[in-house]
Amino acid sequence: MIRVLVIDDDDIAREAMCAVLVKAGFYVFELATPIGATSVIKRDGITAVALDINMPTINGDKLAKLLRENAQLANLGIVLVSGCDVEQLSALGEKVGADGIVSKSKLHVALAPAIERAVAARAGKSSAPASVPYPNAGPPSSSRRPR
Question: Using CB atoms within 10 A of its CB, is residue 43 exposed (0-12), middle (13-18) or buried (19+)?
Answer without folding.
Answer: middle
